[in-house]
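Human: Not sure, check this?
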Amino acid sequence: MLECGMLDRDRLALKTCSTILCKQLVVDELLIQSLQADEILTEAMAENIMAAQTSQKRSWCLLLLLPKRGPRAFSSFCTALQETQQQHLYELLTQSSEKDGKETPGVIFRPEEEPVMATTEKKRETSSVDREDNSGVSSSSSYPVQTLESCLPSESPFRRLVPISEEDRKPERQGTKRRREDKQADRFIDSSLPLPTQEVVAAKRARTQAESMEFSLDADSPINTPVLPCSPDFYLSNCHQSYRMNSSPRGFALVISNVTFDPCAAPDLDPRKGGEVDEEVLRKVFTELDYVLTVHRDLTAQGMKACIEEFSRRPGHQTMDSCVVCLLSHGVEGAIYGTDGRLLQLDWVFESFDNAHCPLLQNKPKMFFIQACRGEEMDCGVEQMDGPGRTCSPSCEQRDAGREGQGDASARQSGDMRRTRIKLPQRSDMICGFASLKGTAAMRNTKRGSWFVQELNKMLRHRARDTHLADIMVQVNRHIKEREGYAPGTAHHRCKEMSEFTSSLCKDLYLFPKYQSQY
């Protein structure tokens, strides 16, 4: 049985930081499991929190519960923040708790009351295309630490949790009536919440120049659960039928991310809000997958070309087992834009890594991920029809039975036993994931980054330990297919996206995360 109530200084620290916590805290399964392990939350409480339809609502529910869960709740919550890589919130809380413990002894608080989320303040951030609409929503999320009432909007769980003296306490009947009205208002607002598959988040204010970009990314980027490790048994049972993948590091990785474009040279190319989130997500996941990562931001077309040429000619490729190239920018079919509005042809990029131009990577897998539009057409989706499933059409590729191998047999019989050098096709052992289909736009959320990079990150973290990359890309396609934009009153409302990949891989490509060969 938990002791009732949290320490006054800890309760005040939560209250002081409640606005920042409501907007920046990411409540995921890892954080909830940590609190359950410390017996701060019961299973029923955990289920109720995770059932909330938005991230802000989950944060609000958790913050409402914590002050009631005993004196250990604050320290357990801080530990959970560290475990889920929310270090900036941990530091914010601990500093505030130390300060409040010195300045506000003997404070009395009203009992916790359920908050009302003011409908006038509740704004929604829409999904945006890589050629972005004029939604005016900022991707920023850094908030300066404020004090007491100045940082408590109406949606805060601690709005009415203010220090009072006993003689100022209102009659209980008035408090009870107000709580009943608040609950009714809260239920009314909840009924308007969108389905969880839609892109809805609270609006954020613009970040000032003095605020830290890293602070914003830690809050806005998806919480990254650790990449799950490959087991030794799985490696031993699959390594012989797949590409060699046991060098440490696994290879070099290059990320080129164009976010801001020259307004004079490229006036039609808007800033790619949320692009910096993609950049950080890719940096983290490929670093965990044991790649040596290089990130370049805002390059012209010529700058991208020079960067890729230098990367493809690195002598270190000889001792590596693979390489990764991620290109994030505005684009058209077959090309991506530099910050100067000039195009870099993707076919040239692939050519730079083919067997002729990059011999150090011959027979090694080369992975490409392109987050860019491939046209301006919006995929509005179609209504799914009820009825029987599709009928399977016969294959159009029929082998010329009985003729294969005849030429080879006669050549062997001719008796030319001299050993000849094996020839390779010009381009092989490549796989490339595209965020969208030919001619269509790619979707990007200005807070959480692009749909494609979000799903790629999630699948690599959860499935790379036992799934080869081609199957991972199929799963990315499946998740992208299920997503739907949310922007009422705009052309982007209920918009769709469909990713795809092309492959000339000749074996299964397992990344074998965190496995180190003993020989």
About this structure: Residues 172-190 form the longest helix (19 residues).
